[in-house]
Amino acid sequence: MATTVLDQQRAHAGAHAQKTGLWSWLTTVDHKRIGILYGTTAFFFFLLGGLEALLIRIQLARADNNFLSPETYNQLFTMHGTSMIFLAIMPLSAMFFNFMIPLMIGARDVAFPRLNAFSYWVFLLGGLFLNASFLFGAAPDQGWYGYANLTSRQFSPGHNVDFWNMGLQILGVASLAAGVNFFVTVINMRTRGMTMMRMPMFVWMSFITQILILLAFPVITVALILLIFDRFFGTHFFVPAGGGDPLLWQHFFWVFGHPEVYILVLPAFGIISEILPVFSRKPLFGYAAMVFSGAFIAFLGFGVWSHHMFTTGMGPIADTFFSLTTMLIAIPTGVKIFNWMGTMWGGSIQYRTPMYFAVAFIAMFIIGGLSGVMHASPPADLQQNDTYFIVAHFHYVLFGGSIFALTAGAYYWWPKMFGRLLDEKLGKVHFWLMLIGFNLTFFPMHLVGLHGMPRRTYTYPKELNFESLNQLETLGSFILGLGFLVFLFNILKTTRGPRNAPADPWNGATLEWAIPSPPPEWNFAETPVVHGRDPLWELKRQRGGRLPEPSPGTGAGIHIPPPSYWPLVSAIGVTGIFVALMMSPKWGPWGIIVAISLTFFGIYNWLFEKGYSEFTTPQGGGHH
Amino acid sequence: MADAHSTAEAHDHPTPGTYAKIGLFLFVLTALEVGLYEGTFGEHAGTLGASLQPFFIPLLLFLSAIKFALVAMYYMHLKNDSKLFSGVFVFPIIIATVIILGLVALQAYHWAFAASG
Amino acid sequence: MSDHAHALDTTTGLDHRKLAIWTFIGSECLFFATLISNYLVQSKKSLVGPFPHEVWKDPATGQVFEPIIEIPLVTFGTALLLFSSLFIVLALYGAQRGNRKMLIGWLGATILCGMFFVGMQVYEFTHFVHKGLTLQRNLFGASFFVLTGFHGTHVTIGVIWLVTMFILAIRGQLPKERALNLEIAALYWHFVDVVWIIIFPVVYLIR
Question: In this complex, is the C-beta atom of B41 within 8 Å of any C-beta atom belonging to chain C?
Fold first, then answer.
């Protein structure tokens, strides 16, 4: 036969291929496209944040340096932190939430496709708004946690704090909307046979992350609102002269801030729990313990917040309480580490790029965890707080942890998302540059930190002898930068190559590998039924080895949610509200009124849009 | 199938009369709250008011808790709905309570600690 | 999995949107918990009056400020909100049975109660300002207006939502099959009532 049935189906699917072009992307409600949008945007902001870091490192390479003014330096470290947390790590995780969760649970999309698109557009606009501050020379400069009362009108009269405040509020809306969406998706769209305890670990960790987002973000929303009232409406919540307490800001912020760091790291844990079994050819060790430790970490994460405040004089009882809870949280984390090692133990290790990053993650995260446990002791923290010792800790867990894991995930899932495998050799070069560069940059920070080098200070005198280690750190940071250039080169080279990745290049265990790379718009030709964990391994066992290349199906009889521009319109409205609020001293209330009207207009049209009722209220009996 | 569903509902679904009774009870509880306030702090409170004072806050919160539970269980239908909804509501309330109590305790302790030098 | 014969093709048999509104309500619990914490921690730290329940004389100007809280007014508003919860339950009862008159009548009553509550709050706010309590005056004023103001904003959004449902009902676009749409709005409305059940004693009654 000249063409196979597979070829014919592929051709048919191609004839009905998804539209391309800018408008199709602006109106997309496809979770896979939204995932790619998140990833591309986040990677861009990540590079921007990295640039900010390199500028900081140049400034710190020499004692008494004046490459950057103190004001510029303050803006750079504030934007570096804010960008990496809210515009890089969270949305990079969101890329995987979006692309992978529906695939891994055997669904065709998320519960609310338009809400999903809305989350992305709000994120994009929020990130652009935050960075637009640079154009006005008013980038946020008060630290990523904006301590009061530095943030009061009196001490920060410019727009810097307001860009930060409004920017975070906008981003908060995006996160909360996505939180509701993924929470409902995981609970309500799992395919037949997939009980909660049969879900892939990435889905579990992401699910717990959504719960954390839903519970933690409202707290910072209120804190930021109180700050808005102080700065715009003359209240004294954090202003001592009016009876307010700046320390209260720290409490509110860290009640959010601590769960936030688990929001940053739990998805990473989930990714590692996917990669290690596949590249050890062995199921995840201790599935139930992994679920419960993740849940315990999240729950306990609400009870440790004041360990960020050991140096504020809360008193011995408060210090002791939070010290104990913080040390306690190391236990479930330790369980995870041992279970990861147990997964690899006795396995058949596949030395591929995703595995390199995953194994390095474990080592780097252990180092970060060890310094973290050291901070848990208030007397020790008295010396460590506000020094580079802390900077070392959180970079080991957030970069050595989250970023290494996200990079591992990128190499692992790249073929599924783009139909192309990233180059192995370049991947390994990237890995070694990143591992060496990372440790060269951040390990010496433990030392200079204990020797007293303070954070958030634009320079240091020569007599303190910090210079040589700082130069090493700066060298390390540029090696890191080189590593990312290699990664970029790998991406560009791969993208120019053929789109020929198989459906299951790694011999995977989970459902996403059962469909073509990249998946057709409708994901599954027929929604699968699962009978246990690692469903694809089970299926391959039954069929006696690897499976043939899956056909995409024709999509006939499968209904896809149609595209819509109302999420984008509503996102513009919501962003506009906060922009107008910031400008209200000049514009009066009119900007806010226009923005609210636009938001209502967008939402009403969204709610009454035709063609969606079958997706929001999926009726049984159909071929879904 | 739909019939089985609605008959099942009819058995455990409260009637308008039940709802109205609950509404009346909520009103009575509110009146009790205000009455408790007047009885403790009102102009004519007197010695009864003084003796009520230590119990005022717990009693008040107790009455509010009953109102909260009644609206949640009956008006919001949690009593007869899937337990999943109750879980989705109750878990955040637990976290919220922990945070409120924690912040109030820290504030009280902070003052005491600061005042004691 | 239950065999409750729900026609919905979801893992739990429950409707996506009903689960979503409960999830949103759970998140909002934390929003109000933070505002309530702020009130509890800040409202008693005012450097100057006026105060909720005591008279205060300004030592600088000699001006006397009455106690701010007025129990009868807010009790009336509280009762309104409580009864509005009952009314919307009755409206939903009618909607689920295709009883258009019951739906429209009780939904209208709910909306009226909601509007009167907001009206009461607006009156209360202006009255308190006249008595000398402003956002800027002291921490009691700041935390009072922010907490009750954001609650009032939630009520207002609820009223707009219910008016939309009311218009749909009048146009015959809220039949028995779509009663869930009203149920979702009602859940939001009850939540707003439940938050007030906490705010009322905490802000107005506790001394």
Answer: yes
CA C126 – CA B40 distance, rounded (Å) = 28
Q: What is the DSSP string of A391-439?
A: HHHHHHHIIIIIIHHHHHHHHHHHHHHHS-PPPHHHHHHHHHHHHHHHH
DSSP bridge pairs for A619: C8
Q: Is C42 near chain A, with CB under 8 Å? A: yes
Q: At what angle do helices A404-418 and A424-450 cross, to 10 degrees?
A: 160
Spacing of C-alpha A530 from chain mean position? 29
| Helix C16-42 / helix A201-233 crossing angle, nearest 10 deg | 40
For chain A, give the percent of residues with pLDDT over 90.
Answer: 92
C-alpha A449/C-alpha A469 separation (Å) is 11
Contact C114, C154 (CB under 8 A): no
Pick C6's closest partner by Cβ from B5, B33, B91: B5
pLDDT (tens digit per residue) in C110-150 = 999 999 999 999 999 999 999 999 999 999 999 999 999 99
Dist. CA A561–CA A541, nearest whole Å: 35
Cis peptide before C201 (omega within 30 of 0): no
Q: Are residues A318 and B106, on separate chains, in Cβ contact within 8 Å?
A: yes
- Cα separation, C71 vs C54, whole angstroms: 14
Phi and psi of B14, rounded to 5°?
Answer: -65, 155
ipTM of the predicted structure? 0.96
Neighbours of C123 (CB within 10 A): 12
Please report, as a single letter, which amino acid is at residue A464. L
Interval C39-66: pLDDT, tens:
999 999 999 989 999 999 999 999 999 9
For residues A126 and A120, what is the distance between their CA atoms, to the nearest angstrom? 10
State which residue of chain B sits closest to C195, comparing Cα positions.
Answer: B68
Mean pLDDT over each residue of chain A, to the nearest integer: 95
Non-local CB neighbours of A615 within 8 Å, separated by 6+ positions: A109, A113, A559, A561
What does the alpha-carbon distance between residue A442 and residue A438 come to, in Å, rounded to a whole number? 6
* Distance between CA atoms of residues A434 and A477, nearest Å: 9
Identify the CA nearest to B22 among candidates C83, A503, A425, A306.
C83
Distance CA A345, CA A354 (A): 18
Q: How many helices (H) and strands (E) does chain C have?
A: 5, 2
Looking at CA atoms only, how far is residue A243 from chain C in angstroms? Answer: 6
Does the distance separating the beta carbons of A184 and C8 come in below 8 Å? no
The conformation of residue B42, written as its DSSP 8-state character, comes to S
Run of H or E residues at A487: helix A467-496
How close is the nearest chain A Cα to the Cα of C174, in Å? Answer: 13
Measured CA to CA in angstroms, residue A164 lies from A192, A295, C33 at distances of 45, 31, 24
For C65, list phi and psi in degrees, rounded to 5. Answer: -110, 125
What's the per-residue H, E or C state across A497-508? CCCCCCCCCCCC
Q: How far apart are CA A58 and CA A479, in angstroms?
A: 13
Q: Please identify which residue in the block is written with the tokens 């790998």.
A: A490
Nearest CB neighbour to A229, from listed C14, C19, C135: C135
* CA distance linking residue A307 with residue A395, whole number of Å: 18
Contact yes or no for A336/A290 (Cβ under 8 A): yes
Three-state SS at C50: coil
A21 residue type, one letter: G
- Please give the CATH superfamily to which domain A30-560 belongs: Cytochrome c oxidase-like, subunit I domain (1.20.210.10)
Q: How many CA atoms lie within 13 A of A298 on its CB side?
A: 27
Can you give the pLDDT at residue A18? Answer: 72
B106 contacts in chain A (CB < 8 Å): 251, 306, 314, 318
In 3D, which of A251, B63, A147, B56 has the Cα closest to residue C41? Answer: A251
Q: What is the CA radius of gyration of chain C?
A: 21
CA distance C146 to C199: 12
